[in-house]
Write a structure and sequence with these properties.
This protein is 39% helix and 14% strand. With 279 residues, it is α/β, with parallel strands linked by helices. β6, α8 and β7 form a beta-alpha-beta unit.
């Protein structure tokens, strides 16, 4: 299959950082990273195929995302980049590092794993009802604590968030819920097909030679922190950070702490880590 031209947001100047969102998601969901990192670097945040504004009506496979991302980097004449991936985006970042080792100089993998495992309980009709109510009200009045306490804590958001403050709910209103509504059936099918096939790239992680930062929320039920730790342990050069009292959306729960840890990790790397080829 040929590549699909992706809708992309580019901010800032300097060494490029490719920011890859999860499912359901869009490039806007990565604004928690791009708004901060674009003050020092160039951030490239695409809508993956079938997500956001990168529309498609044709079936595709997970591996087609890699073709799209390669074409995106080629079109922007980017030969070396750091990759940040959240959830599904973390899986794609790992895949990019394995497929294009000379191109990916470092990885930041959040709430993700090379062999993802979940611990999500069964979903009831009450869960769906309260999630719908919480989501609609939060769109109208983002971060309203009454809605959070009345519906949010009783909804499926309780498995995505541990800290039910206005901060993550404002991100949900601005990016999360719109991205959910824009995610195509084709994107969902491609992901589910890969998961049903028993996706497991742990044996291949030794191929990744670049430095890696693996971050997780201790209470993550979608991709457990144990499976994220397992990924970190299989990487040759990795640092592991796990945040208590957080879940799958931990970058939206504790953004200041996560961004400070990312800054510290980037600054601790070898200078060649952030050098373009030929410089």
């Amino acid at each position: 299959m040929t590549s699909t031209k992706l809708s992309v947001s580019i901010k800032g100047t300097g060494f490029p950082i490719l920011c890859l969102h999860g499912h359901p998601g869009s490039g806007d969901c990565m604004s928690v990273f791009t708004e901060h990192l674009s003050q020092r670097f160039q951030t490239i945040s695409p809508d993956l195929r079938g997500y956001g504004k990168s529309r498609t009506s044709a079936p595709f496979e997970m591996t087609d995302h890699l073709l799209d991302l390669e074409a995106l980097l080629d079109g922007l004449a980017i030969d070396r980049t750091l990759a940040i991936g959240w959830s599904l985006g973390g899986i794609l970042a790992l895949e990019l590092a394995m497929k294009y080792p000379q191109r990916i100089t470092g990885l930041i993998v959040l709430a993700s794993a090379a062999k993802p495992r979940g611990s999500h309980p069964p979903i009831s009709w009450q869960d769906n009802l309260y999630t719908g109510l919480a989501g609609i009200i939060n769109l109208v009045i983002p971060g309203w604590q009454w809605n959070i306490d009345t519906f949010g804590r009783r909804s499926l958001f309780r498995y995505l968030i541990q800290q039910h403050t206005s901060t993550p709910y404002r991100y949900l209103a601005a990016a999360g819920t719109p991205a959910y509504l824009q995610t195509s059936k084709m994107a969902t099918k491609a992901l589910n097909t890969a998961l049903r096939a028993g996706y497991n790239r742990l044996p291949n992680l030794a191929e990744i030679q670049c430095p890696c930062l693996v971050m997780a929320g201790e209470g993550d039920r979608h991709i457990t922190s144990a499976s994220s730790l397992e990924t970190a342990q299989h990487l040759k050069e990795s640092q592991w950070l796990c945040y208590p009292n957080t879940a799958h959306l931990f970058p939206w729960e504790i953004p200041d702490r996560v961004l400070a840890d990312i800054d510290h990790w980037i600054d601790s790397q070898n200078p060649d880590f952030l050098k373009k080829s030929g410089l």
